[in-house]
Amino acid sequence: MEAKILDGKALAQKIQAELKQQVEELTPKIGRPPGLAVLMVGDNPASAAYVRNKERACEKVGIASFGKHFPTETSQEELKQVIEELNKDDRVDGILVQLPLPDGLDSVSLLHQIDPDKDADGLHPVNLGRLVRGEPGLRSCTPAGVMRLMEEYQIPLRGKKAVVVGRSILVGKPLALMLLAADATVTIAHSRSQNLGEITRDADILVAAAGRKDLITADMVKPEAIVIDVGINKVTDEAGNSRLVGDVNFDAVKTVAGYITPVPGGIGPMTVALLLANTVWSYSQKK
Ligand code: NDP
Q1: Who contacts 107 (Cβ-Cβ below 8 Å, separation ≥6)?
Q2: What is the ipTM of this complex?
Q3: Handedness of CA 283, 284, 285, 287 (dihedral sign)
Q4: 232 a known binding residue?
Q5: Which stretches make up the Tetrahydrofolate dehydrogenase/cyclohydrolase NAD(P)-binding domain (predicted)?
Q6: Of 24, 96, 141, 283, which sits most exposed with the smallest number of CB within 10 A?
Q7: Residue 260 marked in a binding site
């Protein structure tokens, strides 16, 4: 039997519709719409597409965009000042710096500059600390999207073995903490892990977040496992046409897994939905 699809695209649309309603209710009370500022530096085409996507999603939900696009040669000091102004700007509830930044700019120090209560990406050390402590706070969007998608499909997590492949501060580490908070028994694998297949075959819930096409093959998956593919990899065929694939060999793994996320249409749209949810959450704290 084939795996059931965890439809991130459909759930993202549902979340956006709910957020739109929440924004409509809150706007008269707060006296202004929510605001999100996305800072982009340079001309990375993939980043530009992501930013456009985020701004379009904001518009649908009724969030005002305060996007700013800077040339590649913008200095660290200029960006720091922009963030300080946005921190003080009462119309702005969320600030995010689109990564990667051009060489020579230090993204970590900029991230530290953002007011933790406006940290729409949930990556400021204060918010990561809140996650570690289990306190309420802004959560990193991609891992929060993974958790929300599993919640929607009522995937049981308590006592289950979860394996996260990838240990980045953006995805792997915060996701492992969220799974732990949901009472899963969590293993984190990475590029130095030995016998990856042995580790992943043990997983009731397997999350791939490595950025390596075809990393997860059918023989690495336990029958009926929940397989979540966070990876986004661009592949170009001989004719020069490119498309996006995940880290999981979808066609083979779907014959083994119980549930699986597609790429595209899985965690990508969930990430955007959770970014909007974070912005609306910060906004709702002001009522
Ligand atoms: P990073 O490159 O920061 O981290 C990748 C992680 O995967 C590292 O921990 C690395 O290990 C590990 N890894 C790499 N190769 C292997 C391997 N062969 N076996 C086991 N582990 C491996 O990437 P991100 O965490 O930022 O992103 C991961 C993927 O998710 C990317 O494809 C990215 O595009 C995608 N992504 C998708 C999002 C979405 O919205 N769907 C949002 C964010 C990211 P080590 O630490 O040892 O180097």
Answers
A1: 97, 99, 100, 101
A2: 0.99
A3: positive
A4: yes
A5: 140-286
A6: 24
A7: no
Residue 268 beta carbon below 6 angstroms from any ligand 1 atom? yes
Alpha carbon nearest to ligand 1 atom 6, residue? 166
Catalytic site includes residue 13: no
CATH 3.40.50.720 region(s) of the chain? Answer: 141-267
CA pair distance 197, 178, nearest whole angstrom: 23
The encoded tokens of residue 183 equal 């009472």
| CATH T-level assignment (fold) for domain 31-115 | Rossmann fold (3.40.50)
CATH 3.40.50.10860 domain position(s) in the chain: 31-115
* Catalytic site residue from 16, 22, 98, 113: 98
Beta carbons of 73 and 103 less than 8 angstroms apart: no
At 243, the amino acid letter reads R
Of all protein residues, whose CA lies closest to atom 24 belonging to ligand 1? 168
Q: What is the pLDDT along the chain (287 residues), one digit of tens a residue?
A: 899 999 999 999 999 999 999 999 999 999 999 999 999 999 999 999 999 999 999 999 999 999 899 999 999 999 999 999 999 999 999 999 999 999 999 999 999 999 999 999 999 999 999 999 999 999 999 999 999 999 999 999 999 999 999 999 999 999 999 999 999 999 999 999 999 999 999 999 999 999 999 999 999 999 999 999 999 999 999 999 999 999 999 999 999 999 999 999 999 999 999 999 999 999 999 87
